[in-house]
Amino acid sequence: MSKQRVLSGMRPSGKLHLGNLVGALDNWKKLQKDYECFFFAADWHALTTEYNSPEGIQECIKEMMIDWLSVGLSPEKSVLFVQSRIKEHAELHLLLSMITPLPWLERVPTYKEQQQELANHDLSTYGFLGYPLLQTADIIIYKAHRVPVGIDQVPHVELSREIARRFNFFYAPVFPLPEPMLTEVPRLLGIDGRKMSKSYNNAIYISDLPEEIRQKVNQMFTDPNRIKRSDPGNPDICNVFSFHCVYSSPETVAQVNVDCRRAAIGCVEDKKNLAENILTYLAPIHEERTRLVKNPQIIEEVVENGCQRARGVAAQTMEEVRRAMKIS
User: Fold this and answer.
1) How many CB atoms lie within 10 A of CB 245?
2) Which domain range does residue 141 map to?
3) CB 25 within 8 A of CB 73
4) List of residues 6+ apart from 188 with CB closer than 8 A
5) How far apart are CA 61 and CA 168, in angstroms?
6) Cα→Cα distances 295→62, 292, 307, Å
7) Mean pLDDT, the chain, as a whole number?
8) CB atoms near residue 28 (< 10 Å)
9) What pLDDT does residue 116 have?
10) Are residues 23 and 166 in the same domain?
11) 159 and 40 in one domain?
């Protein structure tokens, strides 16, 4: 391969928001220039927590693919596919489960954390316990060298390395050891100051209409110590300023930083300016979204082509796996 290979996936669990855009998609778009990229809709992973209500997953995949293409992921530069259409993922997951010690899965930090966060879900299933193993299959079946992740997902990539190393030791050196790829991600919170999330009803979505975005920005929390218009503010603790750092020009960011501290601008006026800057940034994305929504066949063609390309790579890897395990 002339380029190193990158793989990442995203659960189709709802509409994508600006946190997804700055936290993943903007980075994926940049990676297309220097890496051979594989990006997939992780619908089997969505079932690990939403197994009792799978009916919305297919529509979420469609909407997610529209967002991916709208923000600049290119089917010419990247392989865009759906996890469940590549059955080799399941086969490798099964074979890896034969050699993976149970304590390796139980010690993954997010296992107990998510059980606490999703206490209203019954997560006493193998699917939930074993989803880091399925993640491993997702990664190593494409022999990915790099996996772009947030800091909380690093233990999952480390587990993938351990499992790949164990397979190579038992059978043959089939898999390269994947490396986590950490990137600086701007910190954008929801409009209420908590983590931006569909479940909190506090997200600004990529697909939101302009008036919806203006209304949501107007509701955003600012410096809690700034009670009156004449009070000086502190941009360092203001979520609106965090958004300025992403969606406004460097000159605007510098000016807002100064004006807020000396109370030369009010929060209401500042939010109006921010909303327009966000809309300017999203305008070409919204234009492309409109085109794709009117031409749904484009999405299916992209997905089908991506699945064919992914399947070709996955099938070749599985041939190597079966030979190595002497089950060909």
Assistant:
1) 16
2) 5-187+296-325
3) yes
4) 18, 19, 22, 23, 196, 239, 242, 243, 246
5) 34
6) 12, 5, 20
7) 94
8) 20
9) 65
10) yes
11) yes
**pLDDT tens digits for 226-238?**
999 999 999 999 9
**Contact criterion met (CB below 8 Å) for 108 and 132:** yes
Q: What are the φ and ψ backbone dihedral angles of 7, each rounded to 5 degrees?
A: -135, 140
Distance CA 62, CA 265 (A): 42
Exposure string of 57-76, with b = 16+ CB inside 10 Å and e = fewer, is beebbbbbbbbbbbbbbebe
Same domain for 23 and 94?
yes
pLDDT tier at 115, thresholds 50, 70, 90: low
Does the pTM of the predicted model rise above 0.90? yes
How many Å apart are CA 64 and CA 67, to the nearest integer?
5
- Six-digit token pair at 323? 């030979």
Distance between CA 243 and CA 202 in Å, rounded? 14
Q: Amino acid identity of 14?
A: G
Which single residue is written with the structure tokens 């809709």?
Answer: 41
Which residues 6+ apart lie within 8 Å of 12 measured at CB? Answer: 41, 42, 43, 46, 57, 60, 61, 63, 64
